[in-house]
TrEMBL record:
Tetramer of two alpha and two beta chains. HAMAP family: Trp_synth_beta. Its EC number is 4.2.1.20. This is Tryptophan synthase beta chain. It comes from Myroides phaeus. Residues 56-378 form the Tryptophan synthase beta chain-like PALP domain. Its cofactor is pyridoxal 5'-phosphate. The lineage of its organism: Bacteria, Pseudomonadati, Bacteroidota, Flavobacteriia, Flavobacteriales. Belongs to the TrpB family. GO terms for cellular component: cytoplasm. PROSITE patterns: TRP_SYNTHASE_BETA. The modification N6-(pyridoxal phosphate)lysine is found at residue 89. Transmembrane segments: none annotated.
Length: 393
């Protein structure tokens, strides 16, 4: 089975580019040029240098003694939490801003929900001296004050999306509208493996450095490049595809997806797309997402702001159809507890998103000699208030 996009940007039945007519010329140009630009030696060299000296790569592959003993299997943590800005998102924003530069753009527009992608985007815009406009729902601006302050401190202009529910969907609409009106000097920087082709594949390629490093590091530590399992959380799917990418065609490596189960996949407070999603077009690509009878996206819910998204990227819809991964809907309580356990067992405070991946250890048995790699997508500093009110610290 093939897990790369075809000529038209499809993974099997999912993907493609469903976009307004006005965007067609810019998207077509991007589709035609992105692979060639990314593969140029000068691009690769600049990207590698920034990933090394600015982001802090390679991130360690850490053998987690405490977890391994507790679950009687071999657990490794891929430490994306140690990246500059505290999560994997920067791998992608570095790649896309270099691409924007090659395309001759001097302005970046992005949308953000909880603000993490906005911060990663504002960071690389400061680094490259580019103008940065971030659309954010007015409600999210009120809820996520620290990230708004970070973006402003980094020099970004944060614009409030005031229509509809005033959250991520409206921010996406307004960012796209800005791009339609300013196609010549502006690049639209998407934060996950979602959106019209070529974004899901482009983001996957930029995040694939994670699995490239895992192969090399496992060879050094275990004498073989392939683990038995890789576990990652999925909001849109960027950290997970990064961890899976170089193993996708290798069926001996079993892939496990942890989604935001919220209060349960059988309740209406959930973000478990693989359980309740239906096919349709969301954010410019055909995928599975939670929708009402009219096909309008439903509001997703998860304790974790990064997993609180009504769909996932088209690759996951394809993987689900092909049975390439196991999907777990991790409930809020299970994730919060797994996060606290990691603090006690390993002395690492994980992002609540990453805690969903860790929670799989409680739900599924692994053999004693299995090698289980968990992608620790981010650190928990941003979530301290959330952990504190949950556990009453
Ligand atoms: C944004 C975020 C996620 C979810 O996004 P993906 O694109 O699915 O990776 C997961 N973990 C952390 C720490 C994040 O910041």
């Amino acid at each position: 089975m093939n897990y790369q996009v075809d000529q038209n940007g499809f993974y099997g039945n999912y993907g493609g580019a469903f976009i307004p007519e006005a965007l067609s010329p810019i998207i077509t140009k991007l589709q035609n040029e992105y692979v060639q630009i990314i593969q140029e030696p000068s691009f690769q060299k600049e990207m590698e240098e920034l990933l090394k000296d600015y982001v802090g790569r390679p991130t360690p592959l850490y053998f987690a003694k405490g977890l391994s003993k507790k679950y009687n299997t071999k657990v490794y943590l891929k430490r994306e939490d140690l990246c500059h800005t505290g999560a994997h998102k920067i791998n992608n924003t570095i790649g896309q801003i270099l691409l924007a530069k090659k395309l001759g753009k001097n302005k970046i527009v992005a949308e953000t929900g909880a603000g993490q992608h906005g911060v990663a985007t504002a960071t690389v815009c400061a680094l490259m001296g580019m103008e940065c406009i971030v659309y954010m729902g007015a409600l999210d601006i009120a809820r996520q004050a620290p990230n708004v302050a970070r973006m402003k401190m980094l020099g970004a202009e944060v614009r409030a999306a005031e229509s509809g529910a005033k959250t991520l969907k409206e921010a996406v609409d307004e960012a796209l509208m800005y791009w339609v009106e300013n196609p010549d000097d502006t690049f639209y920087l998407i934060g996950s493996a979602v959106g019209p082709h070529p974004y899901p594949d482009m983001v996957s390629r930029f995040q694939s450095v994670i699995s490239k490093e895992i192969r090399k590091q496992l060879l050094e530590k275990e004498g073989k490049e392939e683990p038995d399992y890789i576990i990652a959380c999925v909001g849109g799917g960027s950290n997970a595809v990064g961890a899976f990418y170089h193993f996708l065609e290798d069926n001996n490596v079993k892939l496990i997806v942890a989604e935001g189960g919220g209060e349960g996949a059988d309740t209406d407070k959930t973000a478990a797309t693989s359980y309740v999603g239906k096919p349709g077009v969301l954010h410019g690509s055909k995928t599975l997402f939670m929708q009402d009878e009219q096909g309008e996206p439903l509001e997703a819910y998860s304790v974790s702001a990064g997993l609180d998204y009504p769909g996932f990227g088209p690759l996951y819809a394809h993987m689900k159809e092909q049975n390439r991964a196991e999907f777990y809907a991790i409930k809020d309580d299970e994730a919060m507890q797994a996060g606290l356990n990691l603090c006690k067992d390993e002395g690492i405070i994980p992002a609540i998103e990453s805690s969903h991946a860790l929670a799989v250890l409680e739900q599924r048995k692994f053999k004693e000699d299995d090698i289980v790699v968990i992608n620790l997508s981010g650190r928990g500093d941003k979530d301290l208030d959330n952990y504190r009110s949950y556990f009453n610290f």
